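User: structure tokens for this one?
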Amino acid sequence: MATNRVIESFPLYDTVLISKWVDDQEGWFQTYQALGQKNKVSFFDKRNSSDVGMAYCNLDAKERFPYGYIAYSFGVLFQGPALGDGERDTERATPQSRADISHLWTFELPKHVAVRIKLGQDYILDTNVLHSPSGTAAKGSSTSIQSGGGSIPILGIATTQTGAFGEPQLVNRWEFPEPYLRIPNNSVFSIELEFSDYAREILKAVPGPGDYYWGRPVPNGTFYQSFPAASMIQVGLIGKRAVAQRGEQAYMPQVAQ
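Assistant:
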């Protein structure tokens, strides 16, 4: 008895996270320097939703694709901390912001990264990451004047930035021409990002990600609370999958009484 398959729209995504918050998740990194030691990172074959959570990956299998899939487009998203992350300045007991690193991660680094799509043993697409924007991202920025305190305030610019290369519209993605990208059930499939030597040198020289800091006045000054900031690379596919019909039971042959 054959199992009926239905075709349903189902976008897929997988994420590499860089943060001090990261523990031992497969292919994730605690620092930019650790990422800079790698030639490449891989998506859709290292993690699943059970490993890292649905916020970062919605594939329910790894190593082999769990169903047939027709991909119409794909995109790559580099996104850094929205706020300036930093480290504690022990001499002045204040956090020092590194807002520029988020811009470097989001807009400069992708220029120096290749993306390769691998099906089985064959590479079926090689291009630069800038040719395949995600078409999705949080977007916005702001600046504000903040005072350093004291009898003569020290003024500075505080920035908040989110965004990605390419406008966040779904038409801004790499589209596969007909007959599209067809991934067979149970096949070995991955999307790899390869970092140039230049990109790796950037990563090995950049500190962080650091921490977000929240300050609140206390009688003897300011008390700071912190939480690890995070940068991410997310690769997404838009397409349709072939799955068993909802409510269908697995066929079990009857056993003779």
